[in-house]
Amino acid sequence: MQKYIIFFNSVKKTKKNIFSNLFSIKKLLKRIKLKFAAMYKQLLKPLLFKLNPEKAHYLTFDLMKCFLGNSLGRSISKMIFKYKHPVLQKQLFGLTFQNPVGLAAGLDKDAKVFNELSALGFGFIEIGTLTPKPQPGNEKPRLFRLPNDHALINRMGFNNEGVDAAVVRLKNKKTNVIIGGNIGKNKVTANEDAIKDYEYCFNALFDVVDYFVVNVSSPNTPNLRELQDKEPLTHLLMHLQTINSSKSKRKPILLKIAPDLTDSQLDDIISIVASTKIDGIVATNTTIAREPLSYSKEEIDKIGMGGLSGKPLAKRSTEVIAYLKSKSGNAFPVIGVGGIHSPEDALEKMKAGADLIQLYTGFVYEGPTLIKKINKAIVKQGLY
Ligand SMILES: Cc1cc2nc3c(=O)[nH]c(=O)nc-3n(C[C@H](O)[C@H](O)[C@H](O)COP(=O)(O)O)c2cc1C
């Protein structure tokens, strides 16, 4: 009897220990959660911002691979960063998004860290821009910070290892996050032949991505933005739609546009969406404008060509979203991107009509806690 009592008491104690350990793990995670926002802004970001921006970019990739490259790291990260709520789920162009906050194109061009990024709570991740052949991009330096304005200027020029290398990585997908494939043309390909480049990337990626974005709006590939004109754009999108229809199940195709288009060019875009029956618009890419900035004209001129992103872009990209939505009578979905650095910025984009949103520069300046903060704010506002 004595033996049984001792055994029973030790089981009770072990159970209590397990529960109290679990409880303290939960408490610890909560503390880590609270600390991480401060840690990124007070420790990691100042260190990264001391480095050349492109070096910092690749160091961040290494850190992500180190901490999130294994399933244990990703599971812990999800407990810290992911915010799940039924209200956040959205059906759009035949896909179910777990939440509306995505990663914009350009950060993981080569699909090297999409598995790791998915553990930070994004609802979808857009890889690319990818081109058929690998290309080095523009000469360095080509990425610049404007910290006083929470902005970046880049003229990367579609540096990527080519679409086929990305396909191999995408086949090793360890996440169920939605993946978008952003496609472009090689610098050496003339605009007259661009259609072949887009076709190549479309076919190569077809089985490994969930939706496509046709990028004709980067300011950093010479003459690319001429493909936004009505005639070549209609031709390009019609061609991709023909290929799309020949597949056993078609995939959504969206078009990414520049914020520098005039109202009459935006009217053309609305009629092109209708005539080509593509699934939606990503608004917007970076801008060639250089305002509103707090730096002197000399300082900005010294940086040179490139696309401006971040806070100074927020107002214009929201205007473009609102224009497309109201002028078309809400005829198609829009992914809103440009200068989202806070939950308030995100809600503004959604109030302008964005169905989903994406982050790039805000993610760099604010860190991964921004994703959860935005999702919580959306639930609180009942915007979805
Ligand atoms: C360094 C950098 C590289 C980018 N590369 C691409 C790209 O390859 N393809 C693309 O469609 N957009 C690219 N973008 C544009 C972003 O996807 C996004 O549309 C733009 O930066 C506006 O959002 P943000 O203000 O949140 O950064 C890039 C942006 C930055 C800052």
Q: Give helix % range.
A: 40-55%
CATH superfamily of the largest domain: Aldolase class I
Large-scale geometry:
globular
Radius of gyration: 23 Å
- Mean pLDDT, nearest integer? 92
User: How many domains make up the 3D coordinates?
Assistant: 2
Tally of DSSP helical segments: 13
Mind summarizing the main beta sheet?
A: 8 strands, parallel, barrel
Q: Remind me, CATH topology of the largest domain?
A: TIM Barrel
Query: Can you tell me the CATH class of the largest domain?
Result: Alpha Beta
- List bound small molecules: flavin mononucleotide
Order of helices and strands: HHHEEEHEEEHEHEHEHEHEHEHEHH
Order of adjacent strands in the largest pleated sheet? 3-4-7-8-9-10-12-13
- For the record, the CATH architecture of the largest domain stands as Alpha-Beta Barrel
Derived structural class:
alpha/beta
Question: What does this protein structure show overall?
Answer:
The chain has 384 residues and is of the alpha/beta class. It has two domains: 8-48; 53-381, Aldolase class I (TIM Barrel). The protein has helices at 2-48, 53-68, 71-81, 114-118, 163-170, 194-205, 230-246, 263-276, 297-303, 314-328, 343-351, 361-366, 369-381, and strands at residues 90-92, 95-97, 101-103, 124-130, 143-146, 151-154, 178-183, 211-215, 253-257, 280-283, 307-310, 334-337, 356-359. Strand 9 (253-257), helix 8 and strand 10 form a beta-alpha-beta unit. Helix 1 packs across helix 3 (71-81). The mean pLDDT is 92. It binds flavin mononucleotide.
